[in-house]
Amino acid sequence: MERIKCVLSYDGTNFSGFQIQPNGRTVQGEFEQALAKIHKGEVIRIQASGRTDAGVHAYGQVIHFDSELEVSTYGWSQALNTSLPDDIVVIEVEKVEQSFHARYNVAKKEYRYFLSNEKKANVFRRNYTYHYPFPIDLEKIIEGTKYLVGTHDFTSFCSTKTDKEDKIRTIYEIEVYKESDEIVFRFVGDGFLYNMVRIIVGTLLKLGQGKLSPCDIETILQSKNRKLSGKTAPGHGLYLWKVWYE
Questions:
Q1: How many structural domains are present in the chain?
Q2: Secondary structure (DSSP) of 65-128
Q3: In the prediction, which pLDDT does 186 show?
Q4: I want to staple 34 with a disulfide (CB 3.0 to 4.6 A). Which of 64, 75, 83, 197 is the partner?
Q5: pLDDT at res. 160
Q6: Helix and strand numbers, DSSP H then E, in the chain
Q7: 53 catalytic residue (yes or no)
């Protein structure tokens, strides 16, 4: 029995999310169907670094599975990419120790959020970047991010549907910068709660519009009250970018 680690990229546009569900097309569902095809109908379950929601993309999602087949890493890459639909691509395959776990061994993750601040929407990017045609003060947004870096209770910045009791997380880095005609929000942390990145982005946009001041971010954090933070930014601008392991 070998444990196989894969790094995936996928276009989340036509998925109901990563995790398998009874009524909806999912990344996990498609990947496990591909594995069943390779294993002549045998059910092979995968474990992922985390779940992504409907419409959310991945540049570097990580999964693992166990198989009794003796296949080279190149062979796995070829077999999987031949069996998977066009909106999922395996970009890296590695054979790892049985102690490796795609979810439990995560050391940190990087998410990026892409936003178009142009007046007219780019029809070719409509599924991959959030069109936000309003004036925003980028310097104020950058100033506000400083209050979010570090270890905090992020209750104010996660969905009320979050099922985890422990809402303390550490954000190591936040960058906000312009790249061509888009604004990129880059977050690196030890883990992220349900909708956490999207709620932070929505709150920072509220700040950029002058509806909050940078120091209000600290007040919102300390309040542990979701009602004080901004709207949840749409999923299609979000990408799971990279996962690091211990």
A1: 2
A2: EEE-S---HHHHHHHHHHHS-TTEEEEEEEEE-TT--TTTTEEEEEEEEEEE--SS--GGGTTT
A3: 98
A4: 83
A5: 86
A6: 5, 10
A7: yes
Residue-wise pLDDT for 155-180, tens only, equals: 999 998 887 789 999 999 999 999 98
Return the bridge partners of 89, or none.
9
Of the chain, the percentage scoring pLDDT greater than 90 comes to 94
148 and 79 part of one domain: no
Residue 162's pLDDT is what? 83
* Residue 135 φ/ψ, nearest 5 degrees: -65, 135
**What tokens were used for 152?**
């905090």
Intra-chain end-to-end CA distance of the chain, in Å: 23
Query: Do 87 and 134 belong to one domain?
Result: no
Active-site residue, from 11, 53, 66, 153: 53
Taking 90 as the threshold, does the pLDDT of residue 202 lie above it?
Answer: yes
Give the CATH number, domain containing residue 122.
3.30.70.660
What is the spatial distance between Cα 185 and Cα 181, in angstroms, rounded to a whole number?
13
Whether residues 86 and 205 share a domain: the answer is no
pLDDT for res 163: 77
- Provide the domain limits for residue 65: 2-96
3-state secondary structure of 135: coil
Segment 100-124 mean pLDDT: 96
In a domain? residue 101: no
Per the listing, tokens 């995968």 go with 46
Backbone dihedral angles phi then psi of residue 117, each to the nearest 5 degrees? -105, 15
